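User: quick one
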Amino acid sequence: MFRILKKSLQTGSVTGQHPVGAAPSEPIGPEAIEKAKPFRRSMTIREVDTGSCNACEMEMNALANPVYDVERFGVHIAASPRHADALVVTGPVTVNMERALKDVYKATADPKIVIALGDCAVNCGMFKGSYAVTGPVDRHIPVDVRISGCPPRPAEILAVLAKLRQDESASGS
Amino acid sequence: MIDARPAVEQVQAAFTQAITEVCAVHGVPMLRVKKQDLPTVAHFLHTNPGLRGSLSLLWAVDHRPREARYELCYLFTLAERKDWLLLATDLHGDEREFPSITPHLHAAKWYEREIRDLFGLVPIGHPDLRRLVRHEHWPKGSHPLKRDFPWDRVLGRVQGEYAFRKIHGEGVFEVPVGPIHAGIIEPGHFRFSVAGEPIMQLEVRHFWKHRGVEKLFEQQQLTEAVPLSERVSGDTSVGHSLAYCQAVEMLQGVEVSPRARYLRTLFLELERLHNHIGDVGAICNDTAYALAHAHCGRMKEQLMQLNDRLTGSRFLRGVNCVGGVALDLSGLQLAQVEVELNALEQDFSDIEKIVFANASLTERLENTGILTEGIAWDHAVIGVVGRASGIDRDLRRDRPFAAYDVLQPRVALYRYGDVRARMRVRLDEIHESIRLIREVRRGLPLGRLVSRPMHQPQPGAWALSAVEGWRGEILYVVMAGDAGRIHRCKVRDPSFVNWPAIQWAALGNIVPDFPLINKSFNLSYAGNDL
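Assistant: Done. Structure below.
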């Protein structure tokens, strides 16, 4: 018990100890910001991997660690698409995952937004043209936000999520 | 190179009729065997007490258009001396059938199904010929690794359903899980048959992420495919790119400079470090011990930021190139690495003490998901999982690459095969990695970073390289084609070997313990599915 307390006191708070994320490379359209309006205070994400190399998943997982602590911005990760406001899709959409992706999209309740995370999800990246790839994601389901990078750094993902959900009329409503 | 001659002579003496040719490929002895004798020779290699060969890799090559033949190669690791031995056989002309060795060697099961799917060659006598890589909606006759299959062909979609193995009986239920899981992890399907809580049978159905990686390699130049190898399994960017580079260097006769070898060792150990620390945290998290997960997550993040500062990539991408390493580290940077890692080791040791003082946590780890040494041996299990089940294999010691011939790592070995043993292996390897990085700093020689190729490989020349990544043995077979292109690249992530074994480790455990067992294996889906 004392060992745990001592460790916690020694460690202190590490939240926010990361390099600043660069501005998102792809602009976020006004329609996407409008669509994300209901999720400004709280947004629940379901992550769907459609054939990524696992690097994007690791960076999404990093968002939940104490350094990025995405929950402090009201962003939660849900276990089921039924509980989700947003789908974060990674990977170039393989032939074997195509059906599962469409099913997940249907299973997510409206209103919802779709975020394509990483170069593969945005434009199939290095796997473009392969017989086993049918993507990118926006060939199969409508995509609202694109975050490029291979993989995008967690701080960049945070920056996009913040920009998407910022309130322009900060004082009002 | 290790001398495997006695083993070769032993096999030759036993099978004078079956062997048609003896040669060596980059120091690895290769016996060409008549097709029909293959199962008996393989069985002999596997069971002979002096050889105890375990199947490390089985791959096929379509030699068209140069020759109208398919070649099958079987790589055995002889357990006593850790030597390699290759068996090869040919299918000429219109032959499409070869005898299955699966009835004698469990380890060949997935390899032969894979060859059947990707090449359309049929292993006669295989006990389970359901599709593996090609899911049921793929049209009949689509075998993508045949040379006449265009890499960018659009596959149609047909009706079909995979037949899971069923257990019938009163009170037996099936629990389907996946392909999309509850956490942020890769897709795969697990089918549990349960009666009450205990798992009676688990069937793993994978290859949802099949992206056609091996076919994509064949579209690339030998020297330009390093970025693709880094994306086979993103968490093992260094391991995969190093294995690929080593194979090409063997083909080109490149002598990598000692400095580049040391730096490769450093990057490989950094990769091992952040993945192992992440795994320890994730195992604790699956026992609901969030405190250790938070601390490990913090340390893993610290390491990835260190990677980013050193190389500009949190996953250490772009460090390996054919002929050496693409970037250098200054003495100051190395000193900072050592200071940071010394502090981290102290930090991590504190967490270790906290974890092992927690009986409600260790209780969950002990006796959970036991993979016995016998089953591990039968399935040729390797890497962290193997070393937790008494399989004493580590390529860093057995077939030294990079700078491991000088640095000599100590190999962690446990025998109990449960979740605790797999965690123990990781803990030991974390300390060993930090020690090795200190050694690298102490011994780092001066020299150039990239060495030039001596010659361009002849079309048809091939090389086999092996790297002990953080999960286990990564194997690459690279065959040169015309005009500097790749004719064939076989990629083998350790996950491909270890996935079938998890079906055995889960038996008799309760379903809620499966996530914990799965986490303690922590296998790659992307590297398995290719």
